[in-house]
Design a protein that fits this description.
- It is a single chain.
- This protein has 141 residues and is mainly alpha-helical.
- Helices cover 61% and strands 0% of the residues.
- α2 packs antiparallel against α3, α3 crosses α4 and α6 crosses α7.
Length: 141
């Protein structure tokens, strides 16, 4: 394609076949990050990308290297790691904030992804932090 043809080419001609266009992946990834605390369906992501669910799932995998569900779970684990740095936050609260159905679901997925359960991961992190970096421990009554 020459420079003059490139200037007037429709955007779909500028993407790699079988992958999501830049605007599609940005819109979908933004939606995922904004909605991790709830169930996100392939249909709603496909609608954002203006594709059918099957075509979207194939294109998402070709673009990111992961199926949509696995990608979302990795994002949820990453969000859980952020929230687990707050030693005052209960594991059940972290689980629900990150879109897991309950604490047990968080523990299963987290252990599979990270290699240790969330409580152990938090304890190891807190041991590594210096005392001045730690969040204050909850006060008992």
């Amino acid at each position: 394609m020459t420079d003059s043809q490139l200037a007037v080419a429709p955007m779909h001609c500028l993407t790699t076949p079988g992958r999501l266009a830049g605007w599609q992946i940005r819109k979908v990834l933004g939606h995922i990050q904004s909605n991790l605390g709830r169930r996100i369906t392939t249909r709603e992501m496909a609608d954002l990308a203006r594709l059918g669910p099957s075509h979207f799932a194939r294109a998402f995998r070709a673009t990111t290297g992961s199926p949509p569900g696995a990608y979302i779970m990795r994002c949820r684990v990453a969000r859980a790691k952020e929230q687990l740095q707050d030693s005052n936050r209960a594991l059940a609260e972290v689980a629900l904030n990150c879109g897991f159905s309950d604490q047990s679901h968080l523990t299963r997925v987290f252990r599979r992804a990270v290699g240790v359960n969330p409580g152990e991961w938090r304890r190891r992190l807190l041991r590594e932090l210096s005392p001045k970096d730690r969040a204050p421990a909850p006060q008992s009554l």
